[in-house]
DNA sequence: GATCTTAATGCAAACGTTTGCAATAGCGTT
DNA sequence: AACGCTATTGCAAACGTTTGCATTAAGATC
């Protein structure tokens, strides 16, 4: 079994130095002679010694932890199932680790109302990355103005008192829609939820292109919950009631696009011959579906890096600004 | 801006009691008069007071944190992209929170070799949930025999010195394969990686059913990396070199199944008329693909709850045993 | 050889909780 | 009036680091 936990003092005794020296040695403090440092570090390794993070955090008043707060709209407790969001979290995780920080995975359920108190005063994390602006914008705003180091994954165009990193959703909407038109679409349909911050920008992009092409009369908006199931259902229903009165879909996300695609395929509407489809996100499934899905790619890896970098800069006391990530059109069979 | 952080002593002073009383009051210790307790709790709320978790952990020698260690096979640093794994993590997160614990998201990159030292001695977490047995079984074994509270998501049939929670993969393989045969399949193909712990069991289930039906001669194994891309590539290549010499596929995961499906559809092989397909996991995409994918559903929510429950039981000092989750066949259009 | 400088190390306080034990107050019993 | 009992509360130590300051050792300078 495990022998009793070594503390720094024990290690120091073994090495025949004081705890201060041991501490400094482990932190590679140049005050300590190079040789001594190496000796103690080696000793620590052979004895499987680890510093007590709790003690260290108490003394240093910082945690080397970044909290990631997944901001679910749902009032209902439920796990995330959009693969895109999960990908974002996973890429943040990587970026966080690469900077030598650890990642506390949290959500509004744990953090309660007073995020500043919970995370910062509570010494659970040094800063927070919020994934998804959702409807809790009030909580974000409050935490931010309380001085909490904070970066949000959302739409950078949002006018807010906090730093936002996100794709250029407006441009993405334009590119996607323009692509539809270029491919001959005359009756474009937007499938999504314009109330939502990021998706709303995509819709605005859609509208601007449609207007420029004088197609406003023939364009449509189909408002749905942003799940593939809802997309499937509502396209189905629309086909039943209105028939096929559109020839191109810009879906607000890939999951939504895939749901719509399924409904169309079941009714033998040919993609891309009868209806063109463009999605958003570029999740793994976009490439694997049949026909494969044309989409707007969001660079989640870059996103993760940028979110973390901006947060660390804030922690260092410097001012930071929101920024927008470039998007790119990935052309596949559905268009 | 933020006024200076209140400490327990300050709150106590405001309330006109000692810190001990304040501490006990916040922890609802019955030593303190009911009335006093309520008064102090209310005061804490109005002043946005939060206990310093670092100090608390130092003193208590426990963290109320559970670490989730994602055990990637890949030597290459890379983010996870199998939606199923992410779903598992997300459901663990929920279960962890429901028990009043927090979730530290980690991976072998951060934890290094000496997991016990890093998590337990380092006072970063009270216990660890490992997702995926992967190839690091040695690290797991070592941590476990060092006495680390630990539960692994994997295949419960594995003979190992640690507690495992997982689906009945063998039975799942049998059910899936039997279903193929019931639907008239005469030349079943297993698509996956039999070396892998969980997938290997699925393959064994496949074999046992095939044997019982005297189809061993006509059954095939196609060994691939477990990504949809690899599945797509290898089915493509197989069609080119061998032609269509199978009429049913049991894919080791839904992502793999979807990759295979795409290859088949591109060559106008009809699903389910020419080839039946059954997957494993029941990710969201299984329902949305066209044709929708018959699959073996794993109950990730139950998994999350069970993993956490078993870990907490271990923390309480009791012995725990591995256990198997029931699986179920979800029949859709692909079969 | 006394003094100064520099390099390396040690001492002890502080971070903010929790808790065993001691202390106090209030009240009934003899 | 002294005592014992119970219900509350307070005192002070301990958890294991880190770091400002003091100290020591060793070499350099006059």
UniProtKB/TrEMBL annotation, chains A, B:
Q: Which Pfam families match?
A: LacI, Peripla_BP_3
Per the database entry, which stretches of residues form a coiled coil?
none
Per its record, what are the GO molecular function terms?
DNA-binding transcription factor activity; transcription cis-regulatory region binding
- Which key words are in the record? DNA-binding, Transcription, Transcription regulation
Top-level taxon in the UniProt lineage: Bacteria
Q: List each copy of the HTH lacI-type domain by range.
A: 6-60
Q: Which PROSITE patterns match?
A: HTH_LACI_1, HTH_LACI_2
Q: Does the keyword Transcription regulation apply?
A: yes
Q: Return the SMART domains for the record.
A: HTH_LACI
Instruction: State if Transcription is listed as a keyword.
Output: yes
Name of the protein in question: LacI family transcriptional regulator
The opening ranks of the lineage are: Bacteria, Pseudomonadati, Pseudomonadota, Gammaproteobacteria, Alteromonadales
